[in-house]
From TrEMBL:
Upper taxonomic lineage: Archaea, Methanobacteriati, Thermoplasmatota, Thermoplasmata, Thermoplasmatales
Keywords: Hydrolase
CDD domains in alphabetical order: cysteine_hydrolases (cd00431)
UniProt name for this protein: Nicotinamidase family protein
Domain Isochorismatase-like: 6-166
InterPro entries from the UniProt entry: Isochorismatase-like_dom, Isochorismatase-like_hydrls, Isochorismatase-like_sf
UniProt key word Transferase: no
One GO MF term attached to the UniProt entry: hydrolase activity
Organism per entry: Ferroplasma acidiphilum
Length: 180
């Protein structure tokens, strides 16, 4: 992918999904690896964070219970990754494109290629990949920087993304080789 037309999109690496309500050791490990990669990527490629920021009584709470309420600790980017975003977008749905300025931001910036990772691979990352597919973006998923709320879904989520959208997954070392 042409790095001059590329960005990194980090999805929901927020407190509730790393150490809070849905957090676990796999999410913590993904953040550690993401911090290493983002330190090297900063200044070489635009880095966009999309973060769950729900309103009170959000319909999603019927499925998952209250989480990531806008303005709370749970919806904030984890401390280790706060230095890296060039842009931060709030989202209220699984898909980081729906009801956000993500598509406008990418098009205004001449972005055609997205390197995506985050939490949860099988929910927000997968739905964002679907939305990117329908908007004709080229995507690579950075598999070792992803985690699932239920880690038994990780392999099937990556497989679904590849089968349904033709998107490949690479690891963070491959990402760095492609971008730097």
């Amino acid at each position: 992918m042409d790095k001059t037309k590329s960005c990194v999109l980090v999805v929901d690496m927020i407190n509730d999904f790393v150490t809070g309500k849905f957090g676990d050791s796999n999410a913590v490990e993904s953040v550690k690896l993401a911090e290493i990669a983002l330190k090297q990527l900063k200044g070489n490629i635009p880095i966009i964070f999309a973060k769950d920021s729900h309103i009170k009584n959000d319909p999603e709470f019927k499925v998952w219970g209250e989480h990531a309420i806008d303005g709370t600790w749970g919806s904030e980017i984890v401390d280790a990754l706060k230095p890296f975003p060039d842009y931060i977008l709030k989202k209220r749905h699984y898909d980081a494109f729906f009801d956000t300025d993500l598509d406008s931001l990418l098009r205004a910036s001449g972005i055609a290629n997205i390197y995506i990772f985050g939490i949860s691979t099988d929910i927000c990352v997968e739905h964002t990949c679907a939305a990117a597919f329908y908007r004709y973006y080229n995507v690579k998923v950075i598999s070792d920087l992803c985690a699932c709320i239920d880690n038994s879904h990780q392999i099937s989520a990556l497989t679904n993304i590849k089968i349904n959208y033709g998107y490949t997954h690479i690891n963070s070392e491959e990402l760095l080789k492609e971008v730097i």
